[in-house]
């Protein structure tokens, strides 16, 4: 009876299970991720914070306590995905479970209760055919191509036993591009409320020393250091015009040069439009300074 009660307690408390059974003492943020009931989780975390270990612990708990679960993992390369499944396998063996391949997928684990963990190649065509995924983990999501992500989402469309699937996107940033950046920067309240958003900088991770970070800053330079350890979505260094510069150059106060009928506005010639446009642009970049527009002859 006590064994049954213990099993029920661990089924309902994945954080307590991780500590008691695995000896894994998650920090406050890791515990929030493992125990969250949110169906959409976004992890923007520094390198070596423990994203993979945290996701693996959550995946194993799902596989053990929810029979016939389908857990899918993907990352930019199959080797990275295999490494994530290796962590899941290590956790399973630590609790006395010896999984075997599922017989269909090269990178896979199958439990006696019917649960499967499948790692798929980072190719859009390779994920079609999967359905009713209970837990989808996208590792290094900032480097995964958009077409693959768009092909993955429908695999959760039909819930298994009435429970919709959970999606975990985890990564360090990789520039202001792609679906990971789009979701992180999305300000739409309705969309934002669906996601558990987590950001952990290296300075907030007790397992990373200040001495190591000082060395990394000197070795990597500020641009890469901010991206890898401060979770900053940096603009590419090769860009001539930054997004901020472009936004500052835009104004809603200019009249369009061409109208819907394709003609210039009857009461204004092209020179008048260019004259006003030059003034507006100069105001954007020379606030309070001299404005010296010149008409086009």
Question: What does it look like?
Answer:
The protein is of the alpha/beta class and 297 residues long. Helix content is 41%, strand content 12%. It has 12 helices and 7 strands. It has helices spanning 2-12, 14-22, 28-35, 51-65, 78-94, 146-152, 178-185, 189-192, 210-220, 222-229, 243-249, 270-285, and strands at residues 40-45, 70-74, 108-110, 116-119, 135-139, 166-171, 195-200. The protein is globular and about 65 Å long.
Fold topology:
Layout: H1 2-12, H2 14-22, H3 28-35, E1 40-45, H4 51-65, E2 70-74, H5 78-94, E3 108-110, E4 116-119, E5 135-139, H6 146-152, E6 166-171, H7 178-185, H8 189-192, E7 195-200, H9 210-220, H10 222-229, H11 243-249, H12 270-285
Parallel strand pairs: 1-6, 1-7, 2-4, 2-5, 5-6
Antiparallel strand pairs: 3-4
Helix pairs in contact: 1-2, 3-4, 4-5, 9-10
Write a short abstract of this structure.
The chain contains twelve helices and seven strands. The protein is of the alpha/beta class and 297 residues long.
Roughly how much helix do the residues carry, as a percent range? 40-55%
Tell me the strand percentage band.
5-15%
State the total count of DSSP E strands.
7
User: How many distinct helices?
Assistant: 12
List keywords for this structure.
297 residues; alpha/beta; seven-stranded mixed sheet; 12 helices; 7 strands; 41% helix; disordered N terminus; disordered C terminus
């Amino acid at each position: 009876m006590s064994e049954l009660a213990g099993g029920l307690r661990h089924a309902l408390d994945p954080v307590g299970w991780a500590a008691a059974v695995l000896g894994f003492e998650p920090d406050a943020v890791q515990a929030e991720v493992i125990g969250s009931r949110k169906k959409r989780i976004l992890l923007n975390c520094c390198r070596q914070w423990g994203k993979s270990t945290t996701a693996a612990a959550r995946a194993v708990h799902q596989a053990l306590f929810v029979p016939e679960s389908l857990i899918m993992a993907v990352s930019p390369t199959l080797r990275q995905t295999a490494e994530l499944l290796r962590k899941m396998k290590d956790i399973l063996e630590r609790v006395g479970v010896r999984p075997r391949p599922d017989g269909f997928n090269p990178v896979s684990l199958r439990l006696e209760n019917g649960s499967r963990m499948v790692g798929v190649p980072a190719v859009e065509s390779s994920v079609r055919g999967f359905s009713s995924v209970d837990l989808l983990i996208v590792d290094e999501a900032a480097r995964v191509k958009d077409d693959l992500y768009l092909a993955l989402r429908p695999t959760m469309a039909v819930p298994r036993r009435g429970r919709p699937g959970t999606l975990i996107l985890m990564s360090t940033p990789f520039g202001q591009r792609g679906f990971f950046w789009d979701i992180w920067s999305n300000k739409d309240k309705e969309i934002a409320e669906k996601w558990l958003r987590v950001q952990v900088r290296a300075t907030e991770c007790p397992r990373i020393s200040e001495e190591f970070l000082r060395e990394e800053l000197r070795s990597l330079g500020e641009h890469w250091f901010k991206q890898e350890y401060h979770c900053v979505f940096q603009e590419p260094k090769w860009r001539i015009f930054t997004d901020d510069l472009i936004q500052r150059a835009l104004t809603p106060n200019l009249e369009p040069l061409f109208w819907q009928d394709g003609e210039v506005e009857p009461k204004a010639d092209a020179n008048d439009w260019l004259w006003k446009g030059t003034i507006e642009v100069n105001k954007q970049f020379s606030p309070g300074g001299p404005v010296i527009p010149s008409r086009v002859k």
